[in-house]
Amino acid sequence: MKPATVKRGLEGRTAIVTGSTSGIGLGIATALAAQGANIVMNGLGDPSVIGRLRIDLARTHDVAAVYSGADLARPEAIRDLVAFAKQEFGSVDVLVNNAGIQFVSPVDEFPEDEWNSILAINLSAAFHAIKAVVPEMRARGYGRIINIASAHGLVASPFKSAYVAAKHGLIGLTKSVALETATAKITCNAICPGYVWTPLVENQIDDQARAHGIGRDAVIKDILLKEQPNKQFATPQQIGALAAFLCSDVADCITGASLPVDGGWTAH
Fold first, then answer.
1. CA pair distance 186, 178, nearest whole angstrom
2. For range 10-16, the mean pLDDT
3. How far apart are CA 242 and CA 231, in angstroms?
4. Residue 2: per-residue pLDDT
5. Which of 77, 138, 160, 175 could form a disulfide with 70 if both were Cys (CB 3.0 to 4.6 A apart)?
6. CA distance 164 to 105
């Protein structure tokens, strides 16, 4: 007898994941695809590499995956991204606002254009995307919105004024949207990672080692993971698994939450 096919939790759903061509975003896109969601990828990178990632994602998980290079600094491009997803798949059921940028500088020297760019990508882009998807989610009576904030959405560090301000704002946005959509079967939550092991972070280790004249292990323990009591990096797969859980039916009553994945950093 042929075994019965087990229906995956997001079978037939569509998810937009911004910043999903590498790192945390790719980990989330992969986890949602594993649950059966069709994926709309977005992010920067070499077109040929992105093309291979998209094809591998679709083939591995037997879903459809498309890509949009929408510039998230432009509200009209975000609206076009959502329209593209609807055109391809008919609806947007899951929105993951993951894309983010960083710049480090003392506040009195912080370039205004960097401040504006960080707020545009890390905060305003989430607002514009949420605004574009919520009406149809309300009409269908289903929606999952996940904002990838940061431990820096809960606590601050010096020299990261724009990033900290944007991530704190993203958590505030999460709470407001959760309250507004609480009776519409839409949930809105924030995931707050500490340091996550990605190619970007790995590349920073050698740079930090050279700058401080210390070894890689010392950089990891005494600089990058200084504030994380467990002294471990999270992984994109772990963030993806949490995102997939928040999209599941058993997470219906989790909304407005800010969930740290930071090895105890914000428990201080």
1. 8
2. 98
3. 20
4. 47
5. 77
6. 12
Rg of the chain taking only CA atoms, in angstroms = 19
Residues constituting the chain: 268
**What domain range is 261 assigned to?**
14-196+235-267
pLDDT digits (tens, 9 = 90+) for 207-257: 888 888 999 999 999 999 999 999 999 999 999 999 999 999 999 999 999
Rounded alpha-carbon distances, angstroms, from residue 159 to 30, 112, 165, 226, 267:
33, 14, 11, 16, 22
* Closest to 32 measured CA to CA, from 249, 240, 251: 240
Asked if 163 is an active-site residue, the reply is: yes
Question: Tens of pLDDT along 64-82?
Answer: 999 999 999 999 999 999 9
The residue from 67, 142, 163, 195 that is catalytic is 163
Partners of 234 in the β-ladder: 196
Do 106 and 136 reside in the same domain of the chain? yes
The reply to whether 59 and 191 lie within a common domain is yes
Tokens of 144: 């999952």
* 90 CA to centre of own chain: 23
**Vertex 175 angle, CA 249 and 252, to 5°:** 10
- Nearest CA among 80, 167, 159 for reference residue 118: 167
Do 210 and 78 lie in a common domain?
no
Is the pLDDT assigned to residue 205 strictly greater than 80? yes
